[in-house]
Amino acid sequence: MAINSGEKLAPIRKGLLEFVILKIVAAEKVYVADMLKLLSDTEFATQEGTLYPLLSKLRREQLVDYEWKESDAGPPRKYYKLTAQGRAQLAALNDYWKELNRTLAQLEK
Amino acid sequence: MQKVVSINLNGNAYQLEEPGYEALRAYLQRAESRLETNPDRAEIMADLEQAIAEKCGRYLGPNKTVVAAGEMATIIAEMGPVESPEAATQPGSPAGGTGAQQPERGKDGPKRLYQIREGAMVSGVCNGIAAFFDVDVTIVRLVFVILGFVTFGVWVLVYLVMAVVIPYADTPEDRAAAFGLRLKAQELLDQANWQRASARARREWRRTWKRQQKAWQQNWTEHWQRHWDRRWQRMTQTQAAMAATGAPMGGFGHILAGMTLPVFAIVNAALFVAWSLVMMSALMTGAIFGWPLPAGLPQWGSLAILCVIYLALTSPLRAARHGAHLAWGPYYHMWAALSSVFWLGFTALFLWLAYQHLPQVHALLDQLPSFWQKRRMSFTV
């Protein structure tokens, strides 16, 4: 954890957060609290204060959408899912990530 | 025992301890300002409120109906600072992570010059300056008195100008800013965040912070709290009611405020006119309408005493008028402007009445041009 909290790596994680969220939303319809829990033990641990604005931005870009679902405890919740556009974007990001990895591997040689 | 504030979070009512309420209000205000340019601001705010409401629910049960201040601090720390994603992509800003914003930590809040009513001797100017420069108020007062003597009374006028120009610290935010400290709620919140950060090197700093906070808290409680408790209570109740209903203050409050406004304006204007005439008389004739000034004192000394008497007489009035302002809540500026207009009108009216019906005043004001001429001559010669 020590190296993860290094200042140099913070911007990388921050930049990747959108990618990570798209990945999570792609897997299943999720609620924000579930996303946070899923991420809590990873390098990408984040908080509502960051996630809600980010999700609203993704929705504005029409990459994700949400639907209201009744919950047993309390008011209805927003469950997020990917749009077709979001899926395309995720695929592009996946490809780009692989390419980056290839480049990095080549540079090491 | 803690006072409890009822709030409405995205359609659900919750009861919070007052410091928790302040912390939450500070958090939401900050969030809202961060999202100022965000087109989805309203929606994000609703999302955040709902998330907070759900977290509150975690602390409540059949036998516990109030969210404690500490619990609210934990909730706010969990929520983390609100960042607009557009701004967040800028390099250098910290990633989600623990959500602790290190650069801001430990920095004092913005420091501004205010007048501080509590413990003031005259108007609160010295008190505010003492807070601003972080020195003992007695020293400031001594300096002021000495300056008063050295400048042959001109400093009294400077004081008067400051008393008029420098605003009063009337909200918790103002009072914190007067000391260059951040709002208590903000500290509570920061402290919670701080405790989450585990770096050992910062432990020492934390201890200092706590000590400082404790000292300040103590000071606060002793000096101001008693005085402000009642007014603050009234304010929070109004705010809580507003938050719950979403509607501004009811008609009754406005009627009451509207009724007090001319009364304050009339009394204030009458006192001001009387004082101005007395000052003029003392300055021009060396006596207050025939009543001689104390012989042992120089003229400026008598004038200074008159100023002090006037300020002492009007200070409860100003405080009361201000109390009415507070009750006006969101329409404060409108009412304040209106009451100034009233004051100006009544001042003119009283001056005119005095000029018409009091022969002494008539004579005094008629002398004014020639007096002024003489003065100017003596200056130019």
Polypeptide structure, described:
The complex is a heterodimer of chains A (109) and B (381). Chain A has helices at residues 10-27, 32-40, 48-60, 84-108, and strands at residues 30-31, 64-69, 77-82. Chain A has 109 residues and is α+β, with helices and mostly antiparallel strands. Chain A has a 3-stranded antiparallel β-sheet with strand order 1-3-2. In chain A, a hairpin with a 7-residue loop joins strand 2 (64-69) and strand 3. The longest helix of chain A is centred in the last third of the chain and has 25 residues, at 84-108. The mean pLDDT of chain A is 86. In chain B, helix 1 packs across helix 9, helix 2 packs across helix 3 and helix 11 (251-285) packs antiparallel against helix 12. In chain B, strand 1 and strand 2 (12-17) form a beta hairpin. Chain B is elongated, with a radius of gyration of 27 Å. The longest helix of chain B is centred in the middle third of the chain and has 43 residues, at 203-245. Chain B is built from 14 helices and 5 strands. By secondary structure, chain B is mostly helical. Chain B has a 3-stranded mixed β-sheet with strand order 1-2-3. Chain B has helices spanning 18-34, 41-59, 69-79, 85-88, 125-133, 137-150, 154-165, 172-178, 184-196, 203-245, 251-285, 299-327, 332-357, 359-380, and strands spanning 4-9, 12-17, 66-67, 287-288, 291-292.
